[in-house]
Write a structure and sequence with these properties.
InterPro entries: AA_Transporter-Related, Na/H_Antiport_NhaC-like_C, Na_H_antiport_N. Keywords: Cell membrane, Membrane, Transmembrane, Transmembrane helix. It is a multi-pass membrane protein. This is Sodium:proton antiporter. The chain is an all-alpha fold. Helices cover 75% and strands 0% of the residues. The chain has 21 helices and no strands. The longest helix has 31 residues.
């Protein structure tokens, strides 16, 4: 039990002290390994071996980054940026809600996940400074769009998330349908809507003076250049739609991203001679995020192989009794610690399902209540975790000018506005379903 608690605490403290997140996760992983009785060499070996669990995700992000760079090359994103500038300049609340809406599309309609952020957000940074917009509000808006849709909507990444819950429960003796899983997650997901509204209309409503001198030197510059819709943009849209269809049919992000990239070159939207540059920029954009995910997977492997998570759940369940309210609270609390360390809801759901289902069956929880517990516990690892792509992505865009801190400006605000209501609403769902 203490292995999980102390190692997550190590990661959290180091992150809050502004230590690089990769170093913080490695330190947490080595702490867990040493506490479990491994030698330093054995802990490192187990860390490296576990990194392969997220190799598919890491490659997906890099290819999606290259696809996003290719899309940006055509100038089509400038059309959206210019529209936002013309329609929403001076309207901070509407700007934040629009950003949350655009981010939501990245999970279902155009499944590029976080790859759109470094393309869309940096051109808007000067506008944010001119409007005296609090970037923490932008971070919460982006994280909402990266999480809430897959939690509540059974499409795109939502299908993958709900299927992971259903399959994890089925393999441990509890059956439910995809529709039931989606319905079970509506209540926890509603908590995120509450958190977004609080962030937009209360917490980050007031003007915030920009950091540094860019406000004086660049705020009055023209925010966007006129771009007319042309033939290349038409082919770009075709490539995006094709990538979406292939991803849905094959259930594979890598194949979908490759399809989009190949079509961009085949349609001559991007010249062949730009191929090396496009891929290099994609790697530069998403490489750090991909590597964080790899290291977090290695950390998760240490927790799993040393039975640290199992020990934590067993230690907690031994004193739970038969009160469903208390059981649900403790299981969510355990899930919060586990997923905060690993930072991946998709990666931790199978682990949590194996541990939660027997406890929930014995306590008399319904399958939908169990799904709500597992899904909420998994989702808690995405908002507020330094290792989560839902926080790394917003930081990648908002820190393009070096004025946004990953921990204090992204992780802490998203933890407060999303993990707290997720926990409360997930707790309610587990009790009433």
């Amino acid at each position: 039990m203490w292995i999980v608690l102390i190692s997550v605490l190590v990661m959290t403290v180091l992150s809050l002290l502004r230590v690089n997140v990769i170093i913080a996760i490695i330190a947490a992983a080595l702490t867990a390994g040493l506490m479990a009785g491994l030698s330093l060499a054995e802990a490192v070996e187990m860390l490296v071996n576990g990194m392969g669990d997220q190799a598919n995700t890491a490659l997906s992000y890099i290819l999606l980054g290259a696809f996003a760079v290719a899309i940006s090359y055509t100038g089509i994103t400038s059309l959206l940026v210019n529209y936002l500038i013309k329609a929403l300049t001076g309207k901070k609340t509407m700007m934040l809600l629009a950003i949350a809406g655009i981010a939501s599309l990245s999970q279902n309609l155009v499944p590029v996940h976080i790859a759109f952020i470094p393309i869309l957000i940096p051109p808007l940074l000067k506008l944010f400074d001119k409007m005296k917009m609090d970037r923490r509000g932008v971070a919460t808006a982006l994280t909402f769009g990266l999480k809430a849709p897959y939690i509540m909507i059974p499409a795109g990444f939502g299908i993958l998330f709900h299927r992971t819950i259903v399959d994890g429960m089925a393999s441990n003796g509890s059956e439910l349908t995809m529709n039931q899983a989606a319905l079970a997650m509506l209540i926890p997901g509603s908590g995120m809507i509450v958190g977004l509204l609080i962030a937009v209309f209360i917490t980050y409503r007031k003007p915030k003076e920009p950091i540094g001198t860019s406000a004086e030197t660049g705020a009055d510059e023209e925010m966007g250049q006129a771009v007319a819709f042309n033939r290349k943009h038409t082919f770009t849209i075709i490539a995006i739609v094709a990538a979406l269809i292939v991803q849905i049919v094959t259930d594979n992000l890598i194949i979908g991203a490759l399809t989009g990239l190949v079509l961009m070159f085949a349609f001559l939207v991007v010249p062949f001679k730009q191929g090396d540059g496009i891929i290099s920029e994609g790697v530069a954009m998403m490489g750090t995020i991909a590597f964080v995910m790899l290291v977090a997977a290695g950390y998760g492997n240490i927790l799993k192989e040393t039975d640290a998570v199992t020990g934590m759940v067993e230690a907690s369940s031994s004193v739970l009794g038969d009160n469903k309210v208390i059981i649900a609270f403790v299981l969510l609390l355990v899930g919060l610690f586990v997923t905060m360390g690993i930072g991946s809801s998709f990666g931790t759901v199978p682990i949590l399902a194996a541990l939660y289902v027997p406890i929930c069956l014995a306590a008399g929880f319904s399958p939908m209540a169990t799904a709500a517990l597992i899904g909420t516990a998994g989702a808690l690892g995405d908002a507020g975790s330094p290792a989560s792509d839902s926080t790394l992505g917003p930081t990648a865009g908002l820190n393009a000018d070096g004025k946004h801190n990953h921990i204090w400006d992204t992780c802490v605000p998203t933890f407060i506005h999303y993990n707290i209501p997720l926990f409360i609403f997930g707790w309610i769902a587990a009790v009433i379903l």
